[in-house]
Design goal:
The complex is a heterodimer.
Chain A: H1 3-7, H2 22-25, H3 29-68, H4 71-75, H5 91-122, H6 125-140, H7 143-157, H8 164-189, H9 192-200, H10 205-234, H11 237-242, H12 261-268, H13 274-305
Chain B: E1 5-14, E2 17-27, E3 32-36, H1 43-49, E4 60-68, E5 71-72, H2 80-86, E6 87-90, H3 102-112, H4 118-131, H5 135-138, H6 151-164, E7 169-173, H7 181-194, E8 199-203, H8 207-213, E9 216-222, E10 229-236, H9 237-242, H10 247-253
Parallel strand pairs in B: 3-8, 3-9, 6-7, 7-8
Antiparallel strand pairs in B: 1-2, 1-4, 4-5, 9-10
Classes of the chains: A mainly alpha, B alpha/beta.
Chain lengths: ~300, ~260
């Protein structure tokens, strides 16, 4: 008999009729084919997923990369520059984006991390379910809705001016659920045995969380925070509604306009004159570069904080 | 230093489930007491009630009493955290803190409870590691992570960590079940040394181990799956393994079930 008789189909040949080892040395034809097919499908899916990514990167870098190698780009604002003039820089928008991202993170991270700690370490019963459900809903909120909500509260209800701090509030709404979810996952990964080991030493629960659980999950938490930050830095809707563009350097969160990279892109996106078009691509490339640097920094921090073996 | 444990009419619940029923026993100070019995008979559960670790699991509660010498550990004003400082525990799988070095692991209990004095900490680390027979193996790499040690060394590290806070009682939940025979021997020797200072209760699935290390043995059994575990008998280890008074004990020890 041949090996295919043994391995294909459901009828198993009686053991006595099989040459010893014959069934082991032959690969099953159909199984090998399915394996190959699955591999091809997965690689194809991967390639398809990569196409838009590579395409975007390629367009942005080829069209905007040249702007970034100019020192003026990193040192000058767009003050006094019109769409016919080559020159100026993006430092006003870079500063604005970094400032708003930082303030947003300062407000969002403590709230988000503590919410995650509550959900993983303390949350039982109804309240925990409600909190968790609310976080799910927040995750799904479109950024324009978050922006309009803050507009409604900040401008309509309180009657304040549109200022950069209101932008930060809207961005905070978008950042919190991302960080809660990622931190939650990281805290769940911390083995219960470590918590028990700490309790068994007579360490109270809160101290166990602060000194054992959080340090163990720290690198993952930082990665999650940076992912949230990256999302927030590229967010545009809240900026359009709450924080219009200006060509000048401006860093007052509570008065006047604070320019950012997304609003800088938006400002000139309908321009047809080359100097302005170049600046749009340059701002896009800068934004991608900033997020890239932030991710690299996060990975370095995570590696430094990770236990050495 | 070492304390006697008096368990009286102790019934343990997890939510509505009754895990262990009406256990009464006395564990003598400066001795090793082994808990043996088939899986699910509640020996680990009972062990965890001796330092209120079962309360970590939602729904865990007890009826009856546990006294350490004269103090009721389930008394109205007793803080479970204080109980755990007095009654230390070593777990089935070695669980050193992955973010801490070897020295920091040993001193974790002291540092997390507020001791800052570096010199005192270093002394305590050395003394505890010596008591755990680990000092010579790790003294040159105290700042390396504890997770880099072998399984047996990690378990001795965990024992060092547990005795660094100077408990009166040491509970060991199958401390050798994840270890190789050589490491097991090292731990068993260590248990023999530690009993001069501590009251030790050890849960084990290995009956030879119970016979080797313990002075007294308690045998637990359950009528059927889903029924609560019960203490069948408790006696001197020698008598338990040669001439137990209960038939089921003899059947279990001679390998007829379990």
């Amino acid at each position: 008999m041949t090996a295919t008789d043994v391995t294909s189909g459901s009828n198993v040949a009686p053991m006595g009729s099989v040459v010893p080892g014959a069934g082991l040395s032959h690969r099953s034809g159909p199984r090998a084919l399915r394996n190959r097919l699955a591999a091809v499908v997965m690689w194809a899916a991967f390639a398809i997923a990569m196409v838009p990514l590579v395409w975007i990167l390629w367009s942005v870098v080829t069209k905007g990369g040249a702007m970034l190698v100019n020192a003026d780009w990193w040192t000058h604002s767009q003050r006094g520059i019109t769409n016919r003039i080559v020159g100026g820089g993006a430092v006003h928008a870079i500063e604005g984006t970094l400032l708003e991202a930082m303030v947003t993170a300062l407000m969002a991270v403590p709230v988000a991390v503590m919410t995650a700690i509550y959900l993983v370490e303390y949350g039982r019963g109804r309240l925990a379910r409600v909190v968790s459900f609310t976080v799910d809903i927040l995750t799904g909120i479109p950024s324009i809705v978050a922006a309009l909500f803050i507009y409604a509260v900040w401008v309509t209800v309180f009657g304040f001016q549109r200022v950069a701090f209101a932008v930060c509030l809207a961005l905070m709404l978008l950042m919190i659920p991302v960080v809660v979810r990622s931190t939650e996952e990281m805290l769940k990964l911390v083995p219960n045995e470590l918590r028990e080991a700490s309790y068994a030493l007579g360490v109270p629960k809160w101290k166990t969380i602060v000194r054992v659980v959080l340090p163990t999950a720290l690198s993952g938490i930082i990665t999650g925070i940076l992912l949230g930050l990256a999302r927030v830095m590229g967010e545009t809707a809240p900026l359009l509604i709450l924080g219009p563009y200006t060509q000048d350097i401006a860093t007052n969160l509570f008065g006047g306009l604070v320019p950012t990279l997304p609003t800088m892109i938006n400002q000139d996106r309908t321009e047809v004159l080359q100097p302005a078009v170049d600046r749009v691509w340059g701002a896009a490339a800068t934004l991608i570069l900033l997020i890239l640097l932030l991710n690299i920094a996060g990975r370095l921090i995570a590696r430094l904080g990770a236990p050495k073996t | 230093m070492a304390k006697r444990i008096d368990v009286k009419d102790l019934t343990i619940f997890y939510g509505a489930f009754k895990a262990v029923e009406e256990v009464t026993m006395t564990v003598e100070p400066r001795s090793v007491t082994a808990f043996i019995g088939p899986s699910g008979c509640g020996k680990s559960t009972l062990l965890r009630t001796l330092n209120r670790m079962h309360e970590v699991i939602p729904g865990g509660r007890v009826e009856g009493s546990v006294h350490l010498d004269d103090a009721d550990i389930y008394g109205a004003n007793v803080d479970p955290v204080a109980v755990r400082r007095t009654v230390g525990m070593v777990f089935q799988r070695p669980n050193p803190f992955p973010t801490m070095s070897i020295a920091d692991n040993v001193s974790a209990g002291l540092r997390l409870n507020g001791l800052r004095d570096k010199k005192k900490l270093a002394e305590k680390v050395e003394a505890s590691l010596r008591k755990a027979n680990l000092w010579d193996e790790v003294k040159d790499r105290l700042t390396k992570p504890g997770a880099g040690l072998s399984g047996g060394q990690q378990q001795r590290l965990c024992i060092a960590r547990a005795i660094a806070v100077e408990p009166q009682v040491l509970l060991m939940d199958e401390p050798c079940s994840a270890l190789d025979p050589i490491s097991t021997l090292a731990i068993e020797d260590l248990v023999g040394e530690l009993k001069s200072t501590y009251t030790i209760v050890i849960v084990t699935h290995n009956m030879q181990q119970a016979a080797r290390v313990s002075d007294r043995t308690a045998f637990f059994n359950l009528a059927a799956t889903g029924r609560p575990g019960r203490l069948i008998e408790m006696d001197d280890t020698q008598k338990m393994f040669s001439n137990p008074s209960q038939r089921t004990t003899e059947d279990y020890i001679s390998g007829r079930f379990g």
